[in-house]
Design brief:
The complex is a heterodimer of chains A (205) and B (556). Chain A is an all-alpha fold. Chain A is built from six helices and one strand; from the N terminus they run βαααααα. The longest helix of chain A has 33 residues. The longest helix of chain B has 36 residues. The two termini of chain B are 26 Å apart. Classes of the chains: A mainly alpha (205), B mainly alpha (556). At the A-B interface, strand 1, helix 1, helix 2 and helix 5 of A face helix 4, helix 5, helix 6, strand 1 and helix 16 of B. Strand 1 of chain A pairs antiparallel with strand 1 of chain B, so a sheet runs across the interface.
């Protein structure tokens, strides 16, 4: 045993002033974490899409008996509203950055309303369809994909509601607006997913 | 490396205070990554014991050719639960626990990026485990379709009950998936954004590289299993037909979802163990890790290739010939970055001054068994051999050389190596070596016979077999009981040493790495002042790292 061994230290040096230069960026961490969470979420949707393509291209009796196809016009209007809401959300976010709280709240509320319009439209479409969730593999995939996406739209609206509520808390946005940025990003994500979904289910029949 | 003494365990002859251990903190909702790390490790070990006891029953049943100990339904549920527990409640959480403990310390962070998320992810593990166990009390019994839960076997429901074992199984695995995704988001954010000043990517220990690579796999591939699980849940509980061929569904689609994740999951499990090897071999050989940069980057290569090989589990599922060839090629490609690592470890040990302490013994044993598993893995990647041994004990043998021989043994190496850091006390070397000896003999007696059994054609997941398979089955069962016994000295060692072991110095192995810079056990926020890193992680054999660092600081 050699006492000199206790002097062997790890391969680092301590600089006392470094700690100040290395403040934790909590907002940056949250945004980064949220982005990689969204990337992971997109893999779930990609898996569903891959499954949809595989089954559609290999199943002889794709549509349930008596069903000729899906009506496209109403979902198309829904699509336009949802895509437009992404732009509204973007301008809301910009208004917040310019500290124009009133415009932010109005545009944010408009985004929520457009999201709600989309959900109601989808609910009406569901109620009018002639096939159900357990009617063959098409029925299952249709309701699974639109339902899972609809759940994300609902989540987005709830998140926006929370952010709207927080905008009334005094000085809440003084230190930045990561929550609004993240919600806005989530909304764009939900939109992009819907465009792919719309093409896959409604256009490619 | 002339001035560094190399014999024996190097505990300096200086007085160390008795470490204070407040055991109550391990039962609380703590957000300290070190507490959470130990919570993961202890919880997962409890499940390891339960999963191990189930395997003892399985091996007791297989000691005779007849199914004479338990009925077939119970046998089916036993191998299903054994596999599920060992994968989802032992290997995954124990690896996450180790990474939780080590990663912030190794990169010079005070905690993980999202401490509350971290705690929430941990507490899902006992919830998952208890939920899984409750299925033993269901009228419909536990899941019986194996850990892969293939439809149409998993979607059959001969009882009237909606809440079947399979239903509970899917819910439980879903909770585990949510916990894993939360963990992965946390690890990737922590490693990318919380490194200490000067800790560039190429100054990170290889262990951190491997955790990073493994967690990227979690983010990229686990959602595919989630998608499959959601669809399977609806097939089981709501009468949908995603995987039901009678109504146009496609059961092979589930296999794609399952293996798209579950093959890369093998690398989620084994990559951190490669990291453990890369930390332990240099310390106990007193040499820098050979080819550090190549070893580090090879982890990312494994990550990339791992998501391109899943179909090799489906050679016998009606996969077209051209696709089999394609996936045979990509599967064999994994051997390249993996081989690089193996050669780097051998080159690290080569002509080193080896100290055969328990962690080193476990690592050497695990490396030998990994090489063996690698060879049988390449065999299984070959279409003709795989078609021959598909669904036989050959696959079980190969798989267990990885999950026990490599991963579990590597995990024991890690626990022994970092035990002094975690607890502030030294473990008992004699008990550690006894554990290793029993485990190494047990693993080989248990799992080697499965290879000849598989080549002869013995199917897996059966409780009775032809008498000509009896000899190797008796050998395997004796090995299994020996392996089970090997856990006893480990428990005695861990509990005994934690309660009254010799107080450990801050750096008992004279290792180089940030975690050895802090006291044993480390203080709540890890570092009083955040360290500034000025060179790489494996400077063994340098004349005096402190002098070099001081010079580097002056220059920089």
């Amino acid at each position: 045993m050699d006492s000199s061994i206790s002097t062997e230290k790890p391969d680092v040096a301590i600089a006392p002033h470094a700690a100040h230069a290395h403040e934790e960026d909590h907002a940056g961490n949250s945004m980064f974490g949220f982005i990689i969470f969204l990337l992971s979420e997109s893999v779930i949707f990609l898996s569903f899409f891959a499954g949809y393509i595989l089954v559609k291209t290999t199943t002889p009796n794709w549509l349930p008996p008596g069903v000729s196809g899906l009506e496209v016009s109403k979902p198309a209007i829904n699509t336009v509203v949802l895509v437009a809401s992404s732009f509204v959300a973007y301008f809301a976010e910009r208004a917040l950055k310019k500290e124009n709280l009133l415009v932010f709240r109005l545009l944010w509320l408009l985004t929520m309303a457009m999201g709600a319009y989309f959900l109601v439209g989808q609910a009406i479409e569901w109620s009018e369809l002639e096939f159900g969730f357990s009617d063959g593999v098409f029925g299952g995939l249709f309701y699974l994909l639109t339902g899972f996406h609809g759940l994300h739209v609902l989540t987005g609206i709830l998140l926006m509601g929370i952010m709207l509520f927080k905008s009334f808390v005094p000085n809440n946005y003084a230190g930045g607006h990561t929550g609004v940025d993240a919600t806005s990003l989530f909304w764009h994500f939900v939109d992009v997913i819907w465009i792919i979904l719309f093409i896959l289910i409604y256009i490619w029949q | 490396m002339t001035n560094v003494p190399v014999e024996g365990i190097a505990i300096p002859e200086v007085a160390h205070p008795e470490p204070q251990n407040n055991w109550r903190k391990y039962f609380s909702f703590s957000t300290d990554h070190k507490v959470i790390g130990i919570q993961y490790l202890v919880t997962s070990f409890v499940f390891f014991l339960i999963g191990g006891l189930l395997s003892m029953v399985i091996r007791a049943e297989l000691i005779t050719p007849q199914a004479d100990l338990i009925d077939r339904t119970l046998y089916n549920s036993m191998f299903t639960m054994h596999g599920t527990i060992m994968i989802f409640l032992w290997i995954f959480p124990s690896l996450v626990g180790l990474a939780n403990y080590l990663v912030p310390l190794m990169i010079g962070a005070r905690d993980m990026a999202f401490p509350r998320l971290n705690a929430a992810a941990f507490w899902m593990v006992p919830v998952f485990g208890i939920l899984l166990m409750t299925s033993y009390f269901l009228p419909a019994g536990t899941a019986q379709a194996g850990w892969w839960s293939y439809p149409p076997v998993s979607t059959q429901n001969p009882t009237d009950s909606v809440i079947t074992g399979e239903f509970v199984w899917i819910l439980a695995v879903a909770i585990s998936g949510v916990s894993s995704i939360m963990g992965a988001v946390n690890f990737v954010t922590t490693i990318v954004r919380m490194r200490a000043p000067g800790m560039t990517f190429f100054r990170m220990p290889v262990y951190v590289w491997t955790v990073f690579s493994a967690q990227i796999i979690q983010l990229a591939a686990l959602p595919a299993l989630t998608a499959g699980a959601i669809m399977l849940l609806f097939d089981v509980a709501a009468g949908t037909a995603f995987f039901n061929p009678d109504k146009g569904g496609n059961p092979v689609l589930f296999q794609h979802f399952f293996w798209f994740y579950s093959h890369p999951a093998v690398y989620v499990m084994v990559l951190p163990i490669f990291g453990v090897f890369s930390e332990i071999f240099p310390v106990y050989s007193r040499k820098p890790l050979f080819g550090y940069r190549v070893v580090a980057v090879s982890s990312l290569l494994i990550t990339t290739v791992s998501v391109l090989v899943w179909v090799h589990h489906m050679y016998a599922s009606g996969t077209p010939g051209w696709m089999r060839m394609l996936f045979m090629a990509t599967t064999m490609l994994v051997a390249v970055p993996t081989g690089i690592k193996v050669f780097a470890w051998v080159a690290t040990i080569w002509k080193g001054k080896l100290r055969l302490n328990t962690p080193m013994l476990f690592c050497l044993g695990a490396l030998i068994m990994f090489v063996f598993a690698g060879i049988t893995g390449v065999m299984l990647a070959s279409v003709p051999i795989d078609i021959h041994v598909n669904n036989t004990y050959f696959v079980v043998g190969h798989f267990h050389y990885i999950v026990y021989g490599t991963i579990t043994m590597g995990m024991f190496a890690a626990i022994y190596h970092w035990f002094p850091k975690m607890t502030g006390r030294m473990y008992y070397e004699g008990l550690g070596k006894l554990h290793f000896a029993l485990a190494f003999i047990g693993v080989n007696l248990n799992f080697f016979p499965m290879h000849p059994l598989g080549l002869q054609g013995m199917l897996r997941r059966v409780s009775s077999y032809e008498p000509e398979y009896a000899f190797w089955n008796v050998v395997a069962s004796i090995g299994a009981f020996l392996l089970g016994m090997s856990t006893i000295p480990f428990i005695l060692n861990m509990v005994g040493a934690w309660v009254q072991g010799k107080p450990a110095p801050d750096n008992p192995w004279r290792a180089i790495g940030l975690e050895w810079l802090v006291s044993s056990p480390p203080p709540v926020e890890n570092f009083e002042e955040l360290p500034v890193v000025v060179s790489g992680p494996y400077g063994y054999g340098k004349s005096d790292p402190l002098v070099e660092n001081a010079a580097a600081l002056k220059e920089g």
